Amino acid sequence: MGALVNHFQIKPEDRTNIPAKNAIICAITVSISTLTYTYAIYLTNYPVVMMFKSCNILSVILVGVLCSRVVDKKLKLGSKKIVVGILVTLGIVLFKLFDPEAAAKDEKKTEIAGIVLLIVSLLADGFLPDFQAEIKSKYKPLPMEMMTEINKWVCLLSIVYALVLG
Fold first, then answer.
1. Closest to 118 measured CA to CA, from 61, 34, 58
2. Distance between CA atoms of 62 and 60, rounded to whole angstroms?
3. Contact assessment for residue 86 and residue 5, using Cβ atoms and an 8 Å cutoff
4. Domain range summary for the chain, segments of one domain joined by +
5. For labeling, which of 3, 13, 36, 163 is most exposed (least CB within 10 Å)?
6. Coil, strand, or helix at residue 20?
7. How many Å apart are CA 53 and CA 59, to the nearest integer?
8. Contact 141, 18 (CB under 8 A)
């Protein structure tokens, strides 16, 4: 649907050609994040899952600071964003750790495999904005173009995944 909207809304001379390799890397990252998160829900109690996913801003910051491949200064993380991200994450963790109602309600045990899957999901969440910023800085696509291109590949990967697993 987005491809049709782009086709009629964006003039041919204004369209950006995002290389398939870059879009596929983003799509794989989205797929890894989604799949590992989904499987982690089965192995981990829900409050732990929500705490991990609520703290994904920390993974974005860590990747942005330690592993960023973005060259454009405007797209790099500033010190204010890093401080805000750390404070938000700390607030979420403290809120979840000291919530006696949540601990009393949830009897499901948290398995180590579930935590590992959540960490993988967070890492994928952390790398996605960096990959997208790299595309933005090199090719300068419109937001709708980038979203459509990445979602096209996510859809194709999902179809392949569904066909393989049956």
1. 34
2. 6
3. no
4. 20-165
5. 13
6. helix
7. 10
8. yes
Which token pair is 80? 């204010």
Q: pLDDT tens, 51-96? A: 888 888 888 888 887 887 777 667 666 778 778 888 888 887 777 6
Q: How far apart are CA 145 and CA 10, in angstroms?
A: 9
- Residue that has been written with the tokens 């994450």 in this structure: 89
- Nearest residue to 123 (alpha-carbon basis) of 44, 69, 64: 64
d(CA 57, CA 59): 5
CB 59 within 8 A of CB 89: no
| Cα–Cα distance, 15 to 29 (Å, whole number) | 24
| AA identity, residue 146 | M
Write down the pTM of the prediction: 0.79
With CA atoms as reference, report the closest residue to 60 among 117, 116, 114, 121.
121
Q: For residue 29, count other CB atoms closer than 10 A to its CB.
A: 22
